[in-house]
Amino acid sequence: MRYRARGRWWHFPGPERDHLERALKCRADAIERICMLKGTAIEAGYYEILDRHLVPILVALRLRPNHITLAGFVVSLLAGVFFAFSTLGGGVLTLLTGLLDTLDGSLARALGEAKKYGAFLDSVLDRYTELIIYLGIWCYFYQQGRATAWLSLILLLILFGSLMVSYTRARAEGLGQPCLVGVFQRGERIIIIGLAGMINPLANSIANRPGGSGLQDLLLVIALFVLAVGTNLTALWRFLHVLNNLRRS
Questions:
Q1: pTM of the entire predicted model
Q2: Which pLDDT value is given to residue 11?
């Protein structure tokens, strides 16, 4: 095994190679946990709430995972429409979309119905969901006459980054390489947009007070800028991460 460190290649035969491989795997797992809150108390607590309180209700109603997936898609359509007129309504429905997106997976595991058909349906609709929400945000600014070239560029960069974050993972897994690094995956993006949309009206009212900045939708624009930068950095991170893994394998 060859490993590059401090500007040179190191060769590790036999047992030393095995120790190094385990160390590298542990380091990669640690990075993934930090970047995704994977295996943390926050994630465990969230899914425990779903499994204990929401999934049993869905099972009692005889709903299936695909029903929840389709419901999430419908809610995302409503989120896009609401965002065009009210960031508060759009933000609330965006967070509901994220809840349904995780709930369908929990229900599938509870029923033992985690199938490739459902996973493919969920992945495709997830892409449409985000595009619809960002379109609604652009329409919101357009109606106010503030859909500037810079704002359109920011939204376009978010779309590029979001799609490439998903594509790099899908392509890597197709090559047999895990790819979970990065902090701007779909769940994080949904939370940021949802919270920014909900808080945006309050931020606007504060900005309009005497002595306020007077800048409308500043919080929402900041959130969009963070996503534009963060998604593309995550895509680049994944790209380099997979390249390094493929080079070592």
A1: 0.79
A2: 52
